[in-house]
Amino acid sequence: MPGVSFIKVLFLYPIFYYQNCMDAQSGDCFNNDWSNQVAECAGILFKGRFCCEDQISLQINNIVGLKFRFGFTIVKIDSWDPGVDNIKVIAEDEVLDTLSFGPYEGTSMCFNTDYQDLFASYSYMFNLPQGKNSLKITLKGYFNEKVENESWGAKRFTLEMFIPCVEFYSECNFQGQAWRICNGYQTSQVRDIPFEIKSIIIANGIQVKMRNPKYNSGQTQTFTSSQQCLSSYQFPKYNQNG
Ligand SMILES: *[C@@H]1O[C@H](CO)[C@@H](O)[C@H](O)[C@H]1NC(C)=O
Ligand SMILES: [Ca+2]
Ligand SMILES: [Ca+2]
Asked: Looking at ligand 1, which residue's alpha carbon is closest to its atom 6?
C-alpha cells in the first residue's frame, strides 16, 4: 500500500499556547515580547508605560488553529478622558474591542496621586482564517496628553487555542504544499496525505502518531512538537491513483 499507513492526531483541549508577565514580579515581564519597557504600579510589574500613539504587538509564526482566545490585563494610569483616550485590541486586522476609562476610575495606586489607577482583565475569542499559519495581536493606544498625565500598560498575556490544527508540509521548514487536520473538523485518523511529508507544525499538547511498515521498523512514531525537516524519515510519495 503506497503512502503513509496511518496518521492519528490526538488533540488535548484547550491548549494553553502562550503566557507572559503573569505574576506581580514575573521575570519574563523583562523579556522582549510585546515591548522591552517595564514599569511598576503598587508593586506590580507590567509592560509600559505607554502614551500617545504607542502600540505593542506579538507576532507568532508557525501557528495553526481556527479558534483562539486572547486574554490580558490592562493597566489604566491617571487621567484618561473617556471617549477620547482609548486602546484598541486587534487580532490580525480585526478590531476586537476599544477600551476607554475615566480619570477617576479605580483607586490611587501609583504615579499622579490626583488621578486613580486600575487593573482590568479582558479576554476575546476570535477566528483565524483557514490557510493562515501566523498570527499578529496588537494593542494600539490613542492618547492626546503626555505620559506624565495619562498612560497605560498591560500584563498577564495569554493565548489559548480552542480549535487547534496540525499542518503537514511537502518541504522542510513548513514550506511547499500544505495539508491540515483541525480538531473536530475531520476524522483524526487518515490514511493518505497527498504528498511526501517533510515538516509538520505541532503545538505543545498535541500528539501526532504515524506508522508505515517500511519505516522505523514498522513501529508507530509519535511526535509531540513541530518537526522542521523529516529528512531521515521520508514517507513514500502518495500516489493519487495508487
Ligand atoms: C497635563 O496636565 C496638566 C494639569 O492638568 C495640564 O495643565 C497640561 O496641559 C497637561 N498636559 C498636556 C500635554 O495636555
Ligand atoms: Ca495615579
Ligand atoms: Ca487625554
From this structure: 149
